[in-house]
Each structure stands twice: as structure tokens, then as C-alpha cells.
Amino acid sequence: PTVYSDGKKVTATLPTGDSVEVMLYGATVTSWKSNGKEHMWLSEKAILDGSKAIRGGIPVVFPVFGPPPKNHATSSLPQHGFARISHWEYLGKSSSESGLLAKGGDDAVRLDFGLTPANLSDEMKKAWPYDFSLQYSVTLGKNGLQTMLSVRNEGDKPFDFQMLTHTYFRIPDVSKIQITGLAGTKYNDKVMNGNEFDTPSPNLRIEGQTDRVYKSLKQDTTSITVDGSPAYDVIRDNLADTVIWNPWTEGAQAIGDFAPKDGWKNMICVEAGAVNGWTTLEGQDGFEAGQILKSYL
Ligand code: TA6
After folding, report:
1. Would you call the peptide bond into 202 cis, given omega within 30 degrees of 0 as the criterion?
2. 47: number of Cβ within 10 Å
3. HSE of 74 in the Cβ direction (CA atoms, 13 Å)?
4. Phi and psi (nearest 5°) for 125?
5. Does the Cβ of 241 fall within 6 Å of ligand 1?
6. Is 155 touching ligand 1 by the criterion CB < 6 Å?
7. What whole-number distance in Å separates Cα of residue 178 and Cα of residue 285?
8. Which residues have C-beta within 8 Å of that of residue 73, sequence separation ≥ 6?
9. Among 39-53, 75-89, 200-214, 246-260, the least confident range
10. What is the helix (H) or strand (E) element at residue 236, kind and residue range?
């Protein structure tokens, strides 16, 4: 594998041609390619100068998902927390021959990124005054990408957090996809005032603005098919929930950095996370969770 870092982003390429690009800002994956195809959707108006969360790729959501609740330790944080709008440190690479992704016989390469209060703005430190450390690893394998987030409480008072990887998948046409692996769960529909619904059919088609939080999924894999054929798998590791989001025309129109305005037809967010309630981390304790993305395109 070859790894190139220019202080703003890190790019890794395998002999097979598979590649990944991670911006240090937000530790945001902005490109993941295999078989010569780009699998991440990135807005043409994505702001990459560190002034705003990157619109697309895989934003890292921590310590709160969505608008923070009132009267909570996260109340003064911005929507989706500070991880995706902070400058992470590149901790280096390791080429791992082992692990889930290297089974294909091709080697894999792992990139590690770190975030501590030292990397946060004073505003964010004040908004969430806990002693924490995050290590985010991005492992590129053949037709696969693994992201793991390790959270450590470096202090002695417990803190509650939520985490999620807000993955924007590129797809040829949203009217041709189905999302499978959601059966047997309940979801909160944020387009229907957050009300809870049962999941009637195992396969979800996207036919309008969609913003659903599927909770405590039974199986660990949610998949996207295109015209019935496999496109992507999202395999959850120690994460129970998954958010499905497509802004559709009205949402795309309302989001300033969402371009082109009909780009909603070429993206679907399938977001693995622990967002139903809170995970409490005792002082000096740790928590690790993540996802494996597989592409069949
Ligand atoms: O993951 C779905 C969601 O929570 C939507 O409600 C929408 O707000 C989306 O995230 C994008 O949020 P952002 O803060 O990136 O504009």
C-alpha cells in the first residue's frame, strides 16, 4: 500500500487500486474507491476549508447525534457534536495483513487519527468539559472499508455520549435501490414528528424525504441493493442503531452546501451508530465500535 499525507488529508492506495482519502478536518473520509468507482457521495459545494462540517463522505458524529437535547451535558454543542468540525491529528499507518478486510488475500492498510481536548476550540471545550480521547481508525481493504471509533474517558467522572458514522453512499439512482436488513425493529420517523413506528416490510424503498432512526437492530448487516443486486453492505460492530436519510428535493433545496440540487437522486445515507439513548462511560473506561463497509459495485 502507498500512503500520502500533506497535513490536510491522508490518501492510501492498495496495489489493487482501491483507495481512501481522509481529511484531517473531522477525520472525514471524502473518497473511497474500488474497481475504479467512487463509493462516497460528496456535495459539489462541500466546504473543505474547515469552516463547516463536510457535506458528504463519512462525517464522524460524537458526542451527540442530531440537535442536542435541552438540560443535558451536550446542550450547548452544535448539531451532531464537535468531532466532525474539529482538526484531528494523523497518528500514522499500519499495514495489517490480518483482520476482517484482508481475507481477500490482498493486504490492507490502516490509518489512525486522534482527537483530545487539546485539539478542540475553547468554545467546544467549554461546551463539553470532559477529559476524553478519541482514536478513529480507517482500514482500507479489497472492496472494503472499516471504520472504528475508540472512546476513552481520561478523567474520573462519567460522561454520556452518542456516536454515529454519517456515511453518504453514492448510488446511480435512488429510485432503483432497496435497503434490506431493517426487519423486526422499530424506528423513529423524523419526518413524522419523530413518532415511533414498527418496520412492516424488510425492504425499504426511498420514495420521498426519508429520515428514520432504526433502533436495536437484530442482525448486524444493513444492505443497499440496486435493481435487486447487492451494492453495499454496512456491517455494524458493537452498534445497535442505523439512521436512513435522504433529503429529497425539498431537503436538498434547503441545505446551502448540498449540490447539485438534484444530487439527492445519487446518494443515500446509511448511518451506523449508538444513538438511541446514551452510552455512559465511567472514568478511565473505554468503548470501541464501528462498521465494515463492503462494495459489490
Ligand atoms: O442523519 C440524518 C440527519 O440527522 C438529518 O436529520 C439531517 O439533519 C442530516 O442528519 C444532516 O445534518 P447536518 O447537520 O449535516 O446538515
Report:
1. no
2. 14
3. 23
4. -60, -40
5. no
6. no
7. 39
8. 128, 130, 159, 160
9. 200-214
10. strand 229-237
Q: How many CB atoms lie within 10 A of CB 86?
A: 21
**Cα 251 to ligand 1 centroid, rounded to whole Å:** 10
Respond yes or no: is residue 39 known to be catalytic. Answer: no
What does the block give as the cell for 171? Answer: 448510488
Give the angle 220-185-191 at the CA atoms, nearest 5°. Answer: 110
Mutate-to-test residue for ligand 1 from 79, 165, 270, highest number of ligand atoms within 8 A of CB: 79
Q: Is 53 in the pocket of ligand 1 (CB under 6 A)?
A: yes
Which cell numbers hold the place of 286?
A: 473505554
Residues 223, 179: Cα–Cα separation, whole Å: 6
Query: Is the CB of residue 33 below 6 angstroms from any atom belonging to ligand 1?
Result: no
Question: Which class for 43: exposed (0-12), middle (13-18), buried (19 or more C-beta within 10 A)?
Answer: buried
Q: Is 162 helix (H, G, I), strand (E, B) or coil?
A: strand
Q: Are 86 and 124 in contact (CB under 8 A)?
A: yes
Q: Which three cell numbers stand for residue 234?
A: 454496512
Q: How confident is the model at residue 183 (pLDDT cuts 50, 70, 90)?
A: confident
**Distance (Å) from CA 200 to ligand 1 centroid:** 24
Of 39, 154, 271, 288, which one is the catalytic site residue? 271
Query: Distance between CA atoms of 63 and 68, rounded to whole angstroms?
Result: 9
Percent of the chain scoring above 70 in pLDDT: 96
DSSP 126: H
Given 166, 207, 250, 288, the catalytic residue: 166
Residue 104 has pLDDT above 60, yes or no: no
Q: Indicate if the pLDDT at residue 106 is higher than 90.
A: no
271 carries an active-site annotation: yes
Structural contact between residues 168 and 29, judged by C-beta atoms closer than 8 angstroms: no
Residue 280 CA to residue 297 CA, distance in Å, equals 38
- ipTM, 2 decimals? 0.99
User: How remote is the CA of residue 269 from the centroid of ligand 1, in Å?
Assistant: 10
